[in-house]
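re: ur question from earlier - yeah i can do the single chain one, its not a big deal. heres the input i used so u can compare w yours
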Amino acid sequence: MDLQDLLNQDNESTVPGQKESPLKSLEADLRFYSDSIREVAVEIMLEGISACPIFVAHQHEVKLGEPILDKNELNTSWSVNASTLEEFVEKGIIHQNKKDRFEKSYKNAHEFMCLFVIVPEGANFVFYPYK
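and the output i got, formated as tokens:
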């Protein structure tokens, strides 16, 4: 799934009283964070920690991965933690029997960041291209 799939992209005016999707601010932050996230992804792969880095994008505190970009320090809307496929399997977010399927759908980590986006309505995986 791509970030565009989660955003409201039908250029119609917003319904009065309807809040704008928080994912619009995520897209802006990802453009700002892109180089830093790519650097961490490459480091995770080069050090042999994981072939599948996963970045957790959140607006509230989460206990998953290691914090790398803090929205309060950077004056942005989203914080990002660095994690791995292995941690997601270990914590049961990705079930062991679904690991192979996930790896097959995982996009090239040199071209796309794999994000686990957490919003109040739930969470989902998104692949977003580096700038």
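The helical segments are 3-6, 22-46, 71-74, 85-90, 99-105. not sure if urs matches, ping me
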